[in-house]
Design goal:
Blueprint: E1 2-4, H1 7-19, H2 25-43, H3 46-49, E2 53-58, H4 62-76, E3 80-85, H5 94-104, E4 109-111, E5 129-134, H6 146-161, E6 165-169, E7 194-200, E8 214-220, H7 227-230, H8 233-236, E9 244-246, E10 266-270, H9 278-289, E11 294-299, H10 304-310, E12 315-318, H11 322-328, E13 334-339, H12 347-358, E14 364-367, H13 369-377, H14 379-382, E15 389-391, H15 395-401, H16 403-410, H17 421-432, E16 435-438, E17 442-446, E18 452-456, H18 471-484, H19 489-507, H20 515-526
Parallel strand pairs: 2-3, 2-5, 3-4, 5-6, 6-7, 7-8, 9-18, 10-11, 10-13, 11-12, 13-14, 14-15, 15-16
Antiparallel strand pairs: 1-9, 16-17, 17-18
The structure holds ligand NAX and potassium ion.
């Protein structure tokens, strides 16, 4: 797992490092600037070979301080560097001011809001270059003012037009680093995209949730490793209210070693009426492929012929109503239930949800799709949710289940730190009293105790092919299968989500939902299982 930090945590770690005497703020700034230059050369190796053009935009805080270091180092490489400052140099914080003065010894400081010199964006002597955005980083507290925004957009557009690469220091300016959201009334403003974003020590939450608008993210070490451990994690991270883990692998044991089929659990997937049972079958196949020892599809009696014709390894049982389900659940070996995909939202289905949630054993239950609609509609079902449940809503279902939380998330973010998808998912999990997996390219998983993880399918891990009919049904099945195997609800949701993206990536373009369970075996093999 990679730790995602909030800006408050990052500030606390930096302050602790400085207070301990292990490093000064000025040294950290120098390392940060050096890290940006290294990252530029690593990203575009040709730039290292010959002098180029850099346009560096510095802001009024320490992000601007990093910009002065970058400008100086590139100039030392022989580059042509033009530097623009937004703000009053006399009011720069001390380390930024020191670097401003060092820069003044070698180059000119232009006014960010003043005239843009002719030919500024012409490629450098060797035909290439960068525009470096060091206006605001983790200190952004409010929306950029209109003039700054317009000017930043102009720099970016002209730089892009002239073929210069855009580099953001720490965060593209204008984006809140705790939520990844653009601060301001009109979210989605595209003026702050960056080809490359270079951050320090650990990524921030806002690099992985929201709309980070970053082509590539590089995290540079600035010598802060171990500081949180040395001072006790709790102390360094006390400020945190919304940090999370980025899921970079699975948690729990995915291997099957010895035992018989019942050792690996028995998942029961409930499906809908004839002609609508495909979604349930997809979930069932997902549960089986991910390693549940046994999977049974429970369907209405009149859907038996259709399902019998379509299933082999998945077992089939008629489940007419809630009573029939309760009878099935007398068998303690059935240890995970999944309801929702293609289920329907009538009286039978309401009974099924009530029977699954009201079960005295408090079995693990995944609720998806139609089951979420039922839980949203009927407060008495919502009240039955318990800690062994996993809810897997997409944005629409989330809004039906938690309208006030969704409304808060949809409202424009006007101050930092803004209400984030992490905050929303945490609030939802606390209210529901169970694990919530809030789907999206930036899927967030939270448990009622506040534990939170992000399963990001962004940038190099993008899996656009997952936006296909039935893909969510397979995910529900994956999670049910892992629950059957004994994973905790939180680990099942994290691992199921992670494998879902991996399977899609391994299969690639042309993916349909049926391919997802099949791609798992390749993923498992690659993982050495
Ligand atoms: N925290 C750390 O460990 C390190 C931080 N460094 C850099 O320092 C940055 C954080 O520095 P700061 O805390 O000074 O924050 P910033 O440099 O991001 O900006 C803060 C300044 O901008 C003002 N401001 C905030 N929003 C504004 C808006 N919309 N319009 C106009 N002014 C606005 C604030 O009042 C403050 O003066 C990081 O992003 C990073 O680039 C690095 O030097 C290395 C180490
Ligand atoms: K920036």
């Amino acid at each position: 797992m990679t730790e995602l930090l909030t800006s408050a945590q990052m500030r606390a770690i930096e302050a602790a490092a400085i207070a301990s005497g292990m490093v000064t703020g000025l040294e950290l700034m120098e390392r940060a600037g050096r890290g940006v230059v290294e990252a530029i050369f690593e990203e575009w190796p040709a730039l290292r070979a010959a002098p180029q053009r850099a346009v560096v935009l510095c802001g009024p805080g320490n992000n601007g301080g990093d910009g002065f270091v970058v400008a100086r180092l590139l100039k030392e490489w022989g580059w042509e560097v033009a530097l623009f400052l937004y703000g009053d140099p006399a009011r720069l914080p001390p380390d930024a001011r020191t670097n401003y003065l060092r820069w003044c010894g070698t180059g000119e400081v232009r006014d960010f809001l003043g005239e843009i010199p002719e030919g500024l964006f012409d490629a450098g002597p060797s035909g290439d270059g960068v525009v470096v955005d060091a206006l605001f980083g983790t200190g952004l507290a409010r929306p950029l003012d209109a003039r700054v925004r317009a000017r930043l957009a102009e720099f970016r557009a002209q730089g892009q037009f002239c073929g210069l690469h855009s580099v953001a220091v720490d965060m593209p300016s204008g984006i809140d680093s705790d939520s990844g959201r653009f601060l301001g009334e009109d979210e989605g403003w595209s003026g702050v995209q960056a080809d490359l974003c270079v951050t320090f020590h650990r990524p921030r939450v806002g690099h992985f949730v929201g709309e980070p608008s970053v082509g590539r993210l590089v995290v540079k070490d600035i010598g802060l490793d171990g500081i949180a451990d040395r001072m006790g994690r709790g102390a360094a991270c006390r400020e945190s209210t919304s940090a999370a883990d980025l899921i970079c692998r699975w948690s729990g044991d995915l291997r099957k070693s010895g035992g018989h089929k019942y050792t690996h659990g028995h998942a029961l997937i409930l499906s809908g009426p004839p002609g609508r049972a495909g979604a349930g079958r997809l979930a069932a196949r997902g549960a089986l492929r991910i390693g549940a020892g046994l999977v049974t599809l429970g369907c209405p009696p009149d859907a038996m012929p259709e399902n019998a014709a379509r299933l082999d390894a998945v077992m089939l049982r008629p489940v007419a109503d809630g009573n029939a389900l309760a009878e099935l659940l007398v068998d303690p070996r059935v240890n995970a239930v999944c309801l929702g995909p293609g289920l329907g939202t009538g009286a039978r289905e309401m009974d099924l949800v009530a029977a699954a949630l009201g079960d005295a054993q408090r079995r693990a239950v995944v609720l998806d799709a139609d089951a979420l609609t039922l839980v949203a509609r009927h407060p008495e079902l919502f009240a039955l949710l318990h800690e062994a449940c996993v809810l897997t809503p997409h944005a629409g279902e989330f809004a039906r289940l938690f309208p006030d939380i969704a409304e808060r998330l949809a409202a424009p973010a006007v101050t930092g730190p803004a209400f984030s998808r992490l905050d929303a998912t945490r609030a939802a999990a606390a209210r529901a009293g169970c694990v919530v997996l809030f789907k999206g390219p930036d899927t967030v998983i939270a448990d009622p105790a506040g534990r939170c993880a992000v399963n990001a399918a962004l940038r190099e891990r993008a899996a656009p092919w997952l936006a296909t009919a039935g893909s969510g049904d397979v995910l529900a099945g994956f999670i049910a299968g892992l629950l059957a195997r004994g994973f905790s609800p939180f680990d099942a949701a994290c691992t199921g989500g992670w494998l879902h993206v991996e399977a899609a990536r391994r299969f690639g373009p042309g993916l349909i939902a049926e391919d997802l369970p099949e791609a798992l075996s390749v993923v498992f093999r690659d993982l050495g299982l």
